[in-house]
Amino acid sequence: MIMVKKKPLILITNDDGITSKGISELIKMARQFGDVVVVAPDGPRSAQSNALTVDAPLYFEKLPDDNTGSELYKCSGTPTDCVKLALNQVFDRKPDLLLAGINHGSNAAVSVIYSGTMGAVFEGCINRIPAIGLSICDHRQDADFSMAIPYFSAIVRKFMEHPLEGICLNVNAPIGEIKGVKVCRQTKGYWAKEFEPQISPNGNKYFWLTGYFVNLEPNDSQTDEWALANGFISVVPTHVDMTAYNVLNDLTTQGYEEI
Amino acid sequence: MIMVKKKPLILITNDDGITSKGISELIKMARQFGDVVVVAPDGPRSAQSNALTVDAPLYFEKLPDDNTGSELYKCSGTPTDCVKLALNQVFDRKPDLLLAGINHGSNAAVSVIYSGTMGAVFEGCINRIPAIGLSICDHRQDADFSMAIPYFSAIVRKFMEHPLEGICLNVNAPIGEIKGVKVCRQTKGYWAKEFEPQISPNGNKYFWLTGYFVNLEPNDSQTDEWALANGFISVVPTHVDMTAYNVLNDLTTQGYEEI
Question: Is there a contact between A1 and A88 (Cβ–Cβ < 8 Å)?
């Protein structure tokens, strides 16, 4: 009997929307690894984290064939909604891989918490699908992905060879020439001076989110921000268990269970 | 010289909106611990995770005195936006404590990833403010908080006595009689059968998010779902570092840095 091995089934999504340059580059790149199905937001959904649409109905729609051989769907929801809809309504089997991005802008350090791209990756991870978020440190719509893509491609290949249960990857590429790849941990830091007040024509004060990232450990070469600042692609293994295991015993000792 | 110790300054927010019963109960409870300032969404923002408003302006507005002695602000954004606005635009010093809730509905297990309440707590944690999310396993608008509140109060007091750097708490209370408090880890699991399709009057198919939680370790007494199912309040210490430290060496061994 001849065993015909099915090609890997790959779900692609993002948070910049289905018409962004980054997702189009990712679709092209991913096709070498298997059959690609895209379920992505119908417009920008940056910084949507793992937000879900719970108070409104969700729509999704198959788009005409784009001559690439991939199936494309646009969805009215968040990146996490896209993954949930794909798994529940589009696929008849679990995809072998989820790729999110390529995001226009860094998702390193604490941005992993806010990122819609990484939200989609975490949703894959929760559903036990190997998942990778790919981002470059360039917000521009016409960002140049050409230097990052050979590295991203090699990282995806390696993760498909060595998937790790319950682990997803947060991968970020610097702007410009790339020196190599570094396995890192998430940098400690926060955003400061985050709002710009403005006055509307009718006299109301409102605020735009802005600000800059404060790196609390800029000289630590184990962090993802250090890797990016020094020309390396950062690969951070991430998971969805938020438990701080190192203090479980402290809390017990402090007497919480005697309350 | 007599030192006058300032009363602790407490920021309160939630994701059910400023008019919910849960936040009103929390404000009453918190007043015993210090001066309370509330900056909360102007309507429901459940399941908003750490979503940020980046593509629209944000508004916030001081509400008339409610005769409780607390300052109240309503905000057009997400729970995370509320915390950012509070820290940047409302307070002239860093609050000593952030409390979020009391949420109408459980934020145990993987719900911690989707929860707007816990999003606000993580935002406090990123900004190095001791932060606690308080939830009860009852979605009803008129949920009865009376059995949980004495326990929540004792947990808040203990955390103020023993704050842990970079750690926040995810606290959930079961419905009904409470046997005590358990220090737990986050349960492994996922949501299944998540969509209910419907047809609009004009013939379009749309979907409502629904489904049920699948607990992958229902008999493990170290998990928060076990605690809740057995009548205990669950206290899970959480943090915002998503790095999976246990596989950093595996990735290096697998040759990512040789790519």
Answer: no
Residues B87, B92, B96, B100: is their CA dihedral positive or negative? negative
CATH number of this structure's domain A9-187+218-258: 3.40.1210.10
The alpha carbon of residue B12 is apart from the nearest alpha carbon of chain A, in Å, by 20
Nearest-CB residue to B244 (from A161, A167, A204): A167
Identify the three-state secondary structure at position B82. Answer: helix
DSSP secondary structure string, B211-229? -EEEES-TT-TTBHHHHHH
- With residue A135 as reference, give the H or E element that holds it: strand A131-136
Rounded distance, CA A105 to CA B241, Å? 20
Residue with tokens 């950062």: A234
Query: Nearest-CA distance from A166 to chain B in Å?
Result: 9
Greatest alpha-carbon span in chain B: 77
Q: Taking CB atoms and an 8 Å limit, are A58 and B206 in contact across chains?
A: yes
A27-31, A64-68, B163-167, range with the lowest pLDDT: A64-68
Which residues from chain B sit within 8 angstroms of residue A213, using beta carbons? none
Residue A174 pLDDT more than 80? yes
Return the CATH number of the domain spanning residue range B9-187+219-258.
3.40.1210.10
ipTM of the complex: 0.95
Strand partners, B171: B134, B235
Distances (CA, A) of A183 to A109, A172, A230, A236, B169: 13, 11, 13, 6, 29
Which of A84, A188, A208 lies closest to B194 in CB terms?
A: A84
Please give the structure tokens belonging to residue B80: 């995370």
In one-letter notation, the amino acid at residue A134 is: L
What is chain A's length? 259
Query: Residue for token digits 């015909």?
Result: A4
Instruction: Report the first-to-last Cα separation within chain B, whole angstroms.
Output: 65
Burial of B88 (0-12, 13-18, 19+ CB in 10 A): middle
Whether the Cβ atoms of residue A113 and residue A29 lie closer than 8 Å to each other? no
All residues of chain A having their beta carbon less than 8 Å from the beta carbon of residue B183 are 248, 251-252, 256-257
**Which parts of chain B fold into alpha helices (H)?**
21-30, 79-85, 111-114, 116-126, 149-161, 224-229, 248-253
Q: Is the dihedral of CA B226, B227, B228, B231 positive or negative?
A: positive
Looking up tokens 């404060």 gives A214
Omega of the bond leading into B167 within 30 degrees of 0 (cis) = no
Q: Which residue has the tokens 């879900």?
A: A52
Report the pLDDT value the prediction gives residue B193, as an integer from 0 to 100: 85
Residue boundaries of the structural domains of chain B: 9-187+219-258
In angstroms, the CA A117 to CA A15 distance is 5
User: Under DSSP, is residue A113 helix (H, G, I), strand (E, B) or coil?
Assistant: helix
- On whether the CB atoms of residues A98 and A169 are closer than 8 A, the answer is no
The model's pLDDT over A175-214, given as tens digits with 9 standing for 90+, comes to 999 999 999 999 999 999 888 889 988 888 999 988 899 9
